[in-house]
Amino acid sequence: MIGGGGLGTLEIALLLAFLGGAQSAVLQPSAQAPVATESASRPAADELADFVSVVLADTEETWNTSFQQQFNAGRY
Questions:
Q1: How many folded domains does the chain comprise?
Q2: Is 76 inside any structural domain?
Q3: In this structure, are residues 70 and 76 in contact, taking their beta carbons and an 8 Å threshold?
Q4: Looking at the domain assignment, is residue 7 inside a domain?
Q5: CB–CB of 58/10 below 8 Å?
């Protein structure tokens, strides 16, 4: 546990921080930026979802390996 939270808390915080940056760019578009249609933004959303999926899978694999090594070493 990190600071009273678990790994899931950390992942959610990172995801919200990442999405918060993307959300602020969407909510405050510049006057020169064209308005995206849903069909134009869909591939970007799919790409973002794929990215988040890969990052979370890698994070889970890394922590599972680390925890298993710690457990096998008798530290738990």
A1: 1
A2: yes
A3: yes
A4: no
A5: no
Q: How far is CA 28 from CA 21, 53, 62, 64, 69, in A?
A: 11, 26, 36, 39, 46
Q: Quick check: is 46 in a domain?
A: yes
- Lookup result for tokens 């990052």: 55
Average pLDDT over residues 9-21: 71
Q: Which domain holds residue 66?
A: 42-76
In angstroms, the CA 20 to CA 1 distance is 24
Average pLDDT across the chain, whole number: 74
Highest mean pLDDT among 15-19, 26-30, 36-40, 49-53: 49-53
Q: Rounded distance, CA 76 to CA 71, Å?
A: 5
Q: What is the CA radius of gyration of the chain?
A: 18
pLDDT per position as a tens digit, 23-48: 555 445 555 555 555 556 688 888 99
Residue 49 lies in a domain: yes
